[in-house]
Structure formats: C-alpha cells, structure tokens
Amino acid sequence: MAVIEGQERRIVGGVDTHKDLHVAAVVDEQDRVLGTRSFATTRQGYRQMLAWMRSFGELRRIGIESTGSYGAGLLPFMQQAKVPVLEVTTPDNQDRRRRGKNDDLDAQNAAHAAFAGQRTVTPRSRDGMIESLRILMACRKTAVSARRVALQMIQNTIVCAPDGLRDQLRSLTRMQLVRTVASWRPDLTAYRDLDSAYRIGLKSLARRYLELHDEIADLDAMVAAIVDELAPNLVARNSIEHVGAAQLLLTAGDNPERLRSESSFASLCGVSPVPASSGKTVRHRSTAAEIAPPTARSTSSPSDAYGPTRKPKTMSLAGSPRDIPNSTPYAL
May I ask the CATH architecture of the domain 3-121? Predict the structure, then answer.
C-alpha cells in the first residue's frame, strides 16, 4: 500500500454504474485520480472492486451513481463492508461540456463529488418493509394504468360498433357494462363476422378489466396491511388514505433519519421554495423541476408537467421594426 509520511494514504472512490459492468475510480487526499478500472456486476466483481480500491490506501467513502437502479446491488455490499456510501446525483454539466463524457470520466466525476461532498445525498436503504411497499406500489401503478386503457378501449370500441350492439350497451353504468360484456358467450368460430368480432373483442377487454380490477384489490389489501403496521397514526388522521400514506412512506424511505429537518423533506417532495431573484425582481420557484427532470424517454416537455408557458416571441429579419417587440428604428 502507498504510504505518505509514515501514514496510510486516505482515498475516496467513485463508481459509474451500468447493467453488466461498473466503472470505478479512486482519488487521493488531494483529489488526484489514482486509477480507473471496470468490474463485473456480480458479488465476485464487487469484492474485486473493494479490494482494488483498498489497495491504494484507506477507503474513507465512496460515491455511487444510481443506487436505486444499476447500483442497487453494489450499495448493500458496500454498506455491509462498513464503507460510508454517498449517492452522486446530477453530473457536473460544466465539466462534462469541457472534458466530454465516457464511463471513466463519469467514475472520476463521482469520486470528485464524493471527495468534495458536492452533488451527493445519503442513499436510501432498500432492505426493509418500505422496499416491499415500493414494489407493491409499482405493480399497482401499472395495473391501474392498464385497467384504465382497457376501459377506454371498451368505450371506444362500442362507439364504432353496429347500431344493434351499441343500443344494448348505451344506458349501462361502467361496472354493469363490463360485467355484461364479460358474461357474453360469442361464437369463437364466427370471428370473420363483424358482429361476432365485436363481441369477441369486447369480451376479451372486459375480462382483462375484471382481472386487473381483482389484482388491484389484492395489492390494495397488501399495501394497507403494510401501511397500518408502519404508520398507524398517519392513516388515523382525516383525509389520508392508505395509498397517499404509502407514497409519503416511500418518499421518506427505510432510513428517514437522513432527512434532517422538515424543510429537507419539503425539498425532497418538490414543494420547498428556492430563491430565483435578480435585480428588482424578487420571486421564488419550486424545486420540483430539479428533483424530477424529464428523462430522455419522456415525450412531454417540462411545460406539460407544470402548466402552460407563454409562447416565445419570434422576430422576422425581413419585417419592419413594428414586428419586433420593444424595438426602435435604426439606420444602417
């Protein structure tokens, strides 16, 4: 091991997490990069990573990206090894524009962030009942979405159905409609006939809706049991149901002690005002845009999530000064 002035070198690690390979980097007590290396995302790879980092000196802490996804396996391993772990959040955009981006640089940036204590938070522990609640709530969310799509398809299909079929279903309520259509016994061999094809399709959608309805009811019972055990005083208050209470528990996590004050919890929920003043303009903005930015896969813009924005003004180079707001005529 490296020794400086008779003492063991103190180092800080950083990890850029991926599905099959994790890229690790190590910096010394002066924030200088000592090395970068890739390891498999297995327990053997985690052990090799830890041994490699400790070969440079005393590992004080480690910064890991995406501890809730690709880094979910590495986080408990490092915690069991008694290594302090920090979750590295958003990358340094200025440094990324200047130096570029690759896995080695991302790992080094994670190590630099853990060394400086910037862009880091205490990661959520994922080994308790809150993690079980998160899995159940995620399944419930997708089931509710699929049930809504099934109901919309039933209604849209009825709109285009033949008049005789549509008249039978016109005055039924939602559950009456679903249960009536699900009880049909259409001739499955007559699928070439238009009326029979509509009946077969509607019956399939109605059965799907009822199956999802029962699945959601089972998940609600499990969620309610966990919430009643973890926070009975919360659901005992007025206007707080089990699903809303479950979301509050998920936000706090299994280790709520990482939230040091009420204001930190408000910031985590996206309702903490952040100063955004300049000159004579004094205003505040919400933190929601920072804690939940749109992902690359999102098809909506930030304005879709936070309400309509003012249409940007454009000016034409060929137009007159009147076409340009706040402009004055000038001579070339």
Answer: 2-Layer Sandwich (3.30)
